[in-house]
Structures are given as structure tokens and as C-alpha cells.
Design goal:
CATH class of the largest domain: Alpha Beta
Helix content: 25-40%
Largest sheet: 6 strands, mixed
CATH architecture of the largest domain: 3-Layer(aba) Sandwich
Number of strands: 21
Shape: globular
Number of helices: 16
Length: about 475
């Protein structure tokens, strides 16, 4: 494959098809060239998830970076993405390479890159990395040093990132009240990197942690993919219901995204979780600061911003937009529709471990169940907000182009969606149609997979499916 493109969060591909060791080394050389062209010298953190061959792909990347003169801190075991991101700053590194496909299907693997702050690299930086990737026919342009030799020479060293990260957790939250609360918590790790982390953090008290999907299993049984949304979370939620858990904490395959289930084993969608996290910081913790959100997430944040007098900044979809905005505005919180939330005083990167701990702290500090907390949130923002999404796989580029042409031609003038008049069409990232009730429809091409996504948030529950179907029609699906 001669053309490697970085999407919303790095490069992802099908293992054995386009995601090969040869192409992985090309990407690693592209990242090395990017750093060298910027005149940077120093160290790089490299980690990986639990997918098939991930540790070997990480080793191959380390061989390339070491041969290019960089010192490599390599994780010896699968490590949560937020821990890798935190380790960049902890080690004073130039950035990171993370071998993970996050929530993609089991056949895929990925190549994420992070900047010196541990956050996603902005779009202009990703373009520079792409430009530095050698051609598939130019094997001589890729430098390599065998891992054994690199380890012996001190060019690569294994390190344990856990102690420093756990020290940061202790700075962000006092977990002792959660330990003492006597909660019964189910943790669904989705066969991923988060396994064991919440159990270790919350051990030693009255609270009981029951982990599911905690082993390494690269085919991800009981779910289509390790993405923390239904139906992938259904098996974990069922365990919560069976054991009478107070809540279900969910992390995706690389533990940077958060999912959450209530005391009845019902899923709380990620827009509502974002609203609850913002409420926790603003109301319960008394913090003030900018809220950064992608245009695909909840308008409840805009309403909370007005209520508490804090600015709300909207970005395109993906942390390559959220992370730079968080840095620019010294944000209190940043997040996106996919369940990724980042927090001020930490790193500008999604952290499913911290997000779940904050949700638990919200429950303990208020003494309320998740459903009671949702009622509090809805009372604050003027009513219940509903969210849903439909994903459709694109069969080829012609289907994508046809959908794009149809959507480009749509005018907001006189348009109704799900029975609601459209007041505005926004094309910052995809095609967003704002409706007269304050709800919205978004049609957008995924930056990580060949999918077209149709999303909506509305206060009109009866109109949800009609809105989604109208969105599909606008795209010619």
C-alpha cells in the first residue's frame, strides 16, 4: 500500500491486509522524520494494546525510532492509552506512538501518535507525518535497529508507567470515600487494557469490584467490537443486573473511553455521561473553566455553560481538535460523543479510568443513584435529552462521493427533519442541521472507518427514529 492516511485519531487498518509490519515501519519512520524535521531530539514513549500481534508491532516501531537516534521508553505489557499519554509528560518525552485500534473490530490494528503534552497531534502535524512516510518502494529510507541490540545499547528501555500514573490519580481524586462506600461495582473491561486498574485503585475497602471481560482475547467475544455502546456493552450490563450492582463502569479496548450503566443495568448514553461529568465538576466540586466539546456532543453543555457562567468551545470531531482547544483555553473538561473525556490538571487526552472514578465520586458525594443524578441533570438543563446514532458501512468511494454530493446540495431553507423545522446548516465537520426545538441532526463520514454516521440529540423522544431516517435520506442511504 503506497498511500497511508491519518484519520480522526491516527492510522488504522486491517491486520495482514494494509496493516503489515512493512507499513507499520513506514509510519514509524514518518513519525521519526516529523520529529527530526522539527529539530527535535530526545525520547519517545511507545505502548500497545491487547490486539493480535500488538506487542510485536510496538517492538518494530521501537526498532525504527531507536535507529533514528531517539531514546525509546517501551511498555513491557499492554497499557491503557491514558497512561501512555501521561507518561509522555512524566518522562519529558517528545511524544508517543501507541499501537492500538481502540474500538475498531478485532481484525484491525492502529497507529496513534501523541505530542509532547500527551495529547492528540493537531491536523497540520498529522499532515507533516503523512508527508514524511517513505514510499512503499523505498525500503532503504527506513532505518532499523534490532530490538535486542537496541536494548543492549540503552537505546530502548522497558519501563513501568503505573506508579507515576497512580500518583497522578491520587492528586486528582480522593478515592478513600469510594473505597469506604460499600458499593458493588461491575467493571466491563471489554477484553482491553483497563483490566485490573480500577480494582487496584479501589481495593482495600468495603466497596466490591466485579470485573468482566478482563482476560486477553483479541477476538472480543460477546461484542462486535470493544466500543462502549450497545450492543457491545449488553453482556456487561447484564452482569450488573444479575449481581445487583450499584453501577457498571465500562472502558473501551484501550481504556481511553468511558461507558456507564445505572443501578438497573441500563446503559447511560455518552452524551448524558458528559453532562453528568460537567455537572460534577461545576456543581459538586465547584470548579470553573472552559468546556470544550465536539459538534457531535450534547447541547446540555451549552446550557450548563450559561447557568454557571463558563465558556463553551465547539470543535470538529476527534481529539486532534479537542486537545489543542483544551490547551489553548486551559479547559476544565473536554470531550466527544464517542465517550472520550479529558480533564484539566491532567493531560489533554481521553481517560476512561479517571472518567469512571469521577462518576463514582459523584455518586458517593451526593449519595444518589445514577438515575437520581440524571434527574438532577435534566432538571438543570430544562428537560430530558435523548440521543441515538445509526452507522452505515460505505461499500466503496463511489457511495461516499454520492452521499457527499447529496449532502452538499441540501439547503436549510424550508427543510424539515422528523417534523421539526431546520434553522441552520453547519458544515464545520460533516453536515449538522440545527432544529427549531434546539435539537440537532449530524451526518458525518467516520475518520477511522469506512462508515457514514447519522446522529441526533433531541428533547422530542417520539421523533428520534424519524429524524435518523430523514438523515439517511438526505445522504441517499
Amino acid at each position: 500500500m503506497s498511500d497511508i492516511k491519518f484519520g480522526t485519531d491516527g492510522w488504522r487498518g486491517r491486520i495482514g491486509d494494509d496493516y503489515t509490519f512493512a507499513n507499520l515501519r513506514r509510519c514509524a519512520q514518518g513519525f521519526a522524520n516529523y520529529l527530526i524535521n522539527d529539530g527535535k531530539t530526545g525520547s519517545v514513549v511507545i505502548g500497545h494494546d491487547r490486539r493480535f500481534q500488538a506487542e510485536h508491532f510496538a517492538a518494530a516501531a521501537a526498532e525504527v525510532l531507536a535507529a533514528n537516534g531517539f531514546h525509546v521508553y517501551l511498555t513491557p505489557t499492554a497499557t491503557p492509552t491514558p497512561v501512555i499519554s501521561f507518561s509522555v509528560g512524566d518522562k519529558g518525552a517528545l511524544g508517543a506512538i501507541n499501537i492500538t485500534a481502540s474500538h475498531n473490530p478485532p481484525e484491525d490494528c492502529g497507529f496513534k501518535v501523541r505530542d509532547e503534552f500527551g495529547g492528540a497531534i493537531a491536523p497540520d502535524g498529522l499532515k507533516k507525518i503523512e508527508a514524511g512516510i517513505p514510499a512503499a518502494t523505498d525500503a532503504a529510507a527506513i532505518k532499523q535497529m534490532p530490538l535486542k541490540q537496541a536494548l543492549a545499547a540503552g537505546k530502548v528501555e522497558y519501563f513501568d508507567p503505573k506508579p507515576a500514573y497512580l500518583a497522578r490519580v491520587a492528586e486528582l481524586i480522593d478515592v478513600q470515600p469510594i473505597k469506604d462506600a460499600g458499593l458493588k461495582i461491575v467493571v466491563d473491561n471489554m477484553w482491553g487494557n483497563g483490566a485490573g486498574w480500577l480494582s487496584e485503585i479501589l481495593s482495600g475497602g468495603k466497596t466490591e469490584i466485579i470485573e468482566v471481560h478482563a482476560e486477553r482475547n483479541p477476538i472480543f467475544p460477546e461484542m462486535q467490537r470493544p466500543e462502549p455502546i450497545p450492543p457491545n456493552v449488553d453482556a456487561g450490563l447484564a452482569v450488573g443486573q444479575q449481581v445487583g450492582a450499584d453501577c457498571v463502569c465500562i472502558m473501551d479496548g484501550d481504556a481511553d473511553r468511558c461507558g456507564f450503566g445505572d443501578e438497573h443495568g441500563e446503559f447511560i448514553d455518552q452524551l448524558r455521561v458528559y453532562g453528568m461529568l460537567a455537572y460534577y465538576l461545576l456543581e459538586v466540586m465547584g470548579q470553573r473553566g472552559t468546556i470544550v466539546k465536539t459538534l457531535s456532543t450534547t447541547t446540555m453543555l451549552d446550557k450548563l455553560g450559561k447557568l454557571y457562567g463558563v465558556p463553551v468551545v465547539n470543535t470538529g470531531v476527534g481529539f486532534k481538535y479537542v486537545a489543542p482547544a483544551m490547551m489553548e483555553h486551559n479547559a476544565m473538561i473536554g470531550g466527544e460523543e464517542s465517550g472520550g473525556y479529558a480533564f484539566g490538571g491532567h493531560v489533554p487526552e481521553r481517560d476512561g479510568i479517571i472518567a469512571n472514578l469521577f462518576m463514582l465520586d459523584l455518586m458517593v458525594r451526593t449519595g444518589k443513584t445514577p438515575t437520581q443524578l440524571l434527574e438532577l441533570l435534566f432538571a438543570k438543563v430544562g428537560g430530558v435529552h435523548y440521543y441515538d446514532r445509526i452507522d452505515t458501512r460505505l461499500t466503496d468511494n463511489a457511495m461516499k462521493q454520492a452521499a457527499k454530493e447529496k449532502l452538499d446540495a441540501v439547503s436549510a431553507d424550508g427543510l424539515t427533519i422528523g417534523g421539526h423545522a431546520v434553522t441552520e446548516k453547519v458544515t464545520t465537520d460533516g453536515y449538522k442541521f440545527v432544529m427549531d426545538d434546539g435539537g440537532w441532526l449530524l451526518v458525518r463520514f467516520s475518520g477511522t472507518e469506512p462508515l457514514i454516521r447519522v446522529y441526533t440529540e433531541t428533547t422530542d423522544q417520539a421523533a428520534i427514529q424519524a429524524i435518523l431516517e430523514d438523515g439517511k435520506k438526505l445522504a441517499g442511504i
